[in-house]
Amino acid sequence: MTPREKGFLLLTSHLGNPQRPVLTTAQLRVLVERMRQSECTQPEREVTSADLSRLGYNREMSQRIARLLEEGQLLERYLRRGAQAGCIPLTRVSPGYPLILRQRLGLDSPGCLWSKGDLSLLRTPAISLVGSRELGQDNRVFAQQAGRQAAKQGLTLISGNARGADRTAQEACLEAGGTVISIIADELAKVEPREHVLYLSEDGFDEGFSAQRALSRNRCIHALGQIVFVAQATLGKGGTWDGTARNLRFGWSPVACFRDGSPASQELEQMGAYLIGTEDLEDFSTLPEQPSFFA
């Protein structure tokens, strides 16, 4: 692991201590921007409080960042624990980090993704699916068909492993012989490895579920897929609505929403999504906004 990769982990990971004062995504973005604008003649040497002061940080923030970067031994112990649990870190500056996340999310992409499973799946063309935990019957059929067709058409399915639409689509994809990237908001270390599945976690491998983690990972689900299918949403609330609305606002990827006549689907159409039926999933290349691998 290079010094830059270790630096990202030291700045963004709790390293097993929930009270460790890591940088937020916004704070990390500011730091990266300031360092890019500065003249650094020795990029591999350790950053000091004096360096940070010259970047415009006050004394308190300079010392905070410097202290985070000094905890190399804590990081090494944490990495060993991760390796024992089968968890591998991919920092934003790691060679295997998904380029599409950096392209679409920029400096708001996760500083580190922890992984468990087949990393080669990150190099395969993929579509994403999101949806509610409680599904109507027609919406469930749509989610199942999206998963099956992803497998049939040679695409990896990206979803969030939550009850409802996520697991419905994932199981359908795997049963049809496909592959899945599951971005979870649960403790990665406790997830049992599964053939043809890559599990990703935005935070540390030992961090448990939280509503904030569930909401945060939605941007990765939307940004990793060439197109996002919405099986079902609730107007104005819930993780599916929040993630899809943000996608449409920032333009991460095209959104195709199941035409179920709901107020949510109608509003998403007004925001820029397009509506499709289950029959439209039989050939992704015929969709109004084709995924780039069919263009």
Protein described:
This protein has 295 residues and is α/β, with parallel strands linked by helices. It has 2 domains: 82 residues, no CATH class; 168 residues, Rossmann fold (3-Layer(aba) Sandwich), CATH 3.40.50. It has a 9-stranded mixed sheet, sandwiched between helices. The longest helix has 16 residues. It is globular. The chain starts with a helix and ends in a 19-residue tail after the last strand.
Known CATH architecture of the largest domain: 3-Layer(aba) Sandwich
How many beta-strand elements?
9
Q: What share of residues are in beta strands?
A: 5-15%
Q: Give the ordered list of helices and strands.
A: HHHHHEHEEHEHEEHEHEHE
Q: What structural class should be given to the helix and strand makeup?
A: alpha/beta
Strand order of the largest sheet: 1-2-6-5-4-3-7-8-9
From the 3D structure, determine the CATH topology of the largest domain.
Rossmann fold
**Mean pLDDT score:** 92
Q: Helical proportion? A: 40-55%
Shape: globular
Number of domains: 2
* End-to-end CA span: 37 Å
**Biggest sheet overview:** 9 strands, mixed
Number of helices: 11
Radius of gyration, in Å, reads 20 Å
